[in-house]
């Protein structure tokens, strides 16, 4: 077998988006850790090389061929560790700026490749390790598996064992599915499942441009759900016999209904496709977006919205094999009417991601943790901004829950998204307090805020 590899359907879509906006960092994924204590740079370089050797997607470039786009596997030294001295920059906020600047640098997928690694040296016993990767070869889980592999290889100073399966196996499985009779069965399901609904939208501050953007511009607002509400939310979900994800999704759909006014609409849910023997340790783009229909009436309650969300997720999961990019029809990548314009997901570290689980929980308490003999601390920076109108990520730890709203700045002002986020937290509290309350009757803003908004329209202002 040569060095050229076929792409998955999801990768083909990302390749199209990259060629449409090559200078955009919207599809750059990064993970960063602050490491306290002495760090052997030479040993770290060996560990990086071993990890890049293990996951060939990290040492790949992309090209167009007569047979279509292809991934070209390169040598391990395609990914070199960059080192920058930042003496005395101990403030976390300033370090976050360095990390974000590194992560926001566009990739040249045709020449440079798909992955970069950086070591920021603050002091002999204080460093930041950053790994930035293009989404075409990674996802949220993969990014943390990559960093976990790197620290494990550093700790043992030995190369990790070769993978039993790789990303090519995933691509082959997808090709076989789409070449068989199951393809038409899946397509028929999605057509029926999404019938009579269009992509949900929220009132924007500016009209949508008819032309594709040269750069996907975005920003982020986030809010930590009040700590006292988190256990009550989990208990409310348990009593209702739904998952916390279904409850939070149902409330988001309620928010879209209340602000946008539509009764029937679609919202996306990026979901892992990391299934099957040997795939849990694979780094790659292993995500598909489920398209979930929502339906509201004047009497729909928060509890009903959560139950509907859970039922729709369960139905959709049985048909996850059909790639989202194919749902847009004959022009799957260039359609100006995509199946969804907003997505909602929850990041909840599991046992297979001990590094992410540890640093997330430590971050919730404002501290660091020990992993592979090193004291490590999460450095979180905004990323993946501008891909959708609104991209909601619920970050969950054992004791905390944070709502992250990424948004397209071509459409929305920060004040608008902040108001949406505040309304979401308010609706979440109301859903927990009274799941039988009608969505239509819930207040979206506090009474004082409502008075301020009404005052904007008083006759004395004219």
TrEMBL record:
CDD domains to which the protein is assigned, alphabetical: LCL_NRPS-like
SUPFAM superfamilies xref list: CoA-dependent acyltransferases
One Pfam family linked to the record: Condensation
InterPro entries for the chain: CAT-like_dom_sf, Condensation_dom
GO MF, any single term: 2,3-dihydroxybenzoate-serine ligase activity
GO annotation, biological process: amino acid activation for nonribosomal peptide biosynthetic process; enterobactin biosynthetic process; lipid biosynthetic process
Record domain Condensation: where: 6-453
One GO CC term, this protein: enterobactin synthetase complex
Protein name per UniProt: Peptide synthetase
Species assigned in the record: Streptomyces coeruleorubidus
Organism classification: Bacteria, Bacillati, Actinomycetota, Actinomycetes, Kitasatosporales
């Amino acid at each position: 077998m040569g060095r050229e590899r076929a792409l998955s359907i999801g990768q083909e879509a990302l390749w199209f988006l990259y060629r449409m906006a090559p200078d955009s960092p919207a599809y750059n994924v990064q993970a960063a850790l602050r490491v306290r204590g002495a760090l052997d740079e030479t040993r770290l370089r060996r560990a990086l090389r071993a990890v890049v050797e293990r996951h060939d997607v990290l040492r790949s470039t992309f090209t167009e061929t007569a047979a279509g786009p292809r991934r070209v596997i390169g040598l391990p030294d395609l990914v070199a560790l960059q080192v920058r001295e930042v003496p005395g920059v101990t403030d976390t906020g300033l370090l976050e700026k360095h990390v974000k600047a590194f992560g926001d640098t566009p990739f040249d997928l045709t020449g440079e490749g798909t992955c970069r690694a950086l070591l920021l040296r603050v002091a002999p016993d204080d460093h930041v390790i950053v790994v930035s990767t293009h989404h075409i070869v990674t996802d949220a889980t993969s990014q943390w598996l990559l960093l976990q592999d790197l620290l494990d290889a550093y700790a043992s100073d030995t190369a990790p064992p070769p993978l039993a399966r790789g990303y090519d196996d995933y691509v082959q499985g997808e090709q076989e599915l789409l070449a068989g009779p199951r393809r038409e069965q899946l397509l028929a399901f999605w057509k029926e499942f999404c019938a009579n609904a269009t992509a949900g939208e929220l009132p924007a501050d500016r009209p949508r441009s008819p032309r594709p953007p040269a750069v996907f511009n975005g920003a982020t607002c986030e809010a930590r759900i009040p700590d006292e509400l988190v256990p009550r939310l989990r208990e409310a979900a348990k009593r209702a016999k739904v998952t916390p994800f279904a409850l939070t999704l149902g409330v988001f759909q309620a928010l879209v209904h209340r602000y946008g006014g539509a009764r029937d609409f679609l919202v996306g849910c990026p979901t892992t496709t990391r299934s099957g023997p040997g795939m849990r340790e694979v780094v790659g783009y292993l995500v598909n977006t489920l398209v979930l229909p929502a339906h509201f009436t004047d009497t729909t309650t928060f509890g009903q919205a959560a139950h509907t969300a859970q039922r729709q997720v369960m139905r959709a999961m049985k048909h996850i094999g059909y790639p989202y990019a194919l749902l847009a029809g004959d022009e799957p990548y260039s359609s100006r009417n995509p199946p969804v314009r907003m997505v909602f997901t929850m990041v909840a570290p599991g046992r297979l991601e001990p590094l992410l689980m540890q640093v997330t929980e430590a971050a919730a308490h404002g501290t660091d943790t020990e992993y592979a003999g090193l004291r490590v601390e999460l450095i979180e920076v905004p990323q993946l901004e501008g891909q959708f109108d609104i991209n909601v990520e619920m970050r969950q730890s054992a004791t905390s829950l944070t709502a992250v709203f990424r948004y397209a700045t071509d459409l929305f002002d920060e004040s608008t998204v902040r108001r949406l986020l505040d309304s979401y937290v308010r609706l979440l509290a109301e859903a927990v307090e009274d799941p039988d309350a009608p969505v239509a009757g819930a207040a979206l803003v506090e009474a004082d805020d409502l008075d301020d908004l009404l005052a904007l329209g008083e006759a004395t202002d004219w």
